[in-house]
Amino acid sequence: MCKTHFEEEEKDLLPMVEAAEMGKEKQKKLMNQSLEVMSGTHSNSFDFLLEGLTPQEAMQYIDLLMTFGDPNLISSFLCSDVVD
């Protein structure tokens, strides 16, 4: 299910972002807004989502997040189990 979710994002959402011809700053803003929403809805399931991926796919996903996202928001996802 995780792979399906990520494939849908790649198939449906990423082309819309590319079609909008956003610059890097707008892409970062959109990513951070998405991360803020995700932190309230399913940050506790982030580890579960990553478990559905191969190690290489998980690293690619985290690399994508780190490229465009706020490191503090991303670290809140990665450290949520430690804090809980």
3D structure, described in words:
With 84 residues, the protein is mainly α. It has one domain. It is 81% helix and 0% strand. The protein has helices at residues 2-19, 24-41, 46-51, 55-68, 71-78, 80-83. Helix 2 (24-41) packs parallel to helix 5 (71-78). The longest helix has 18 residues, at 2-19. The radius of gyration is 13 Å and the shape is globular. The model has no long low-confidence stretch (mean pLDDT 76).
Topology record:
Blueprint: H1 2-19, H2 24-41, H3 46-51, H4 55-68, H5 71-78, H6 80-83
Helix content: over 70%
Distance between the termini: 25 Å
* Percent of residues in β-strands: under 5%
Q: How many separate helices?
A: 6
- Kindly state the mean pLDDT as a whole number? 76
**Multimeric state of these chains?**
single chain
Query: What structural class is derived from the secondary structure elements?
Result: mainly alpha
The rounded Rg comes to 13 Å
> Spans of 5+ residues with little confidence (pLDDT < 50)?
none
Could you give a short account of the major beta sheet?
A: none
- What's the count of strands? 0
Q: How many domains make up the coordinates?
A: 1
Please provide the ordered H/E string of secondary-structure elements: HHHHHH
Described by the principal axes of the CA atoms, the overall outline is: globular
Care to give the gist of this entry?
This protein has helices at 2-19, 24-41, 46-51, 55-68, 71-78, 80-83. With 84 residues, it is an all-alpha fold. It has one domain.
Which characteristics define this entry?
single chain, mainly alpha, globular, 6 helices, 81% helix, 84 residues
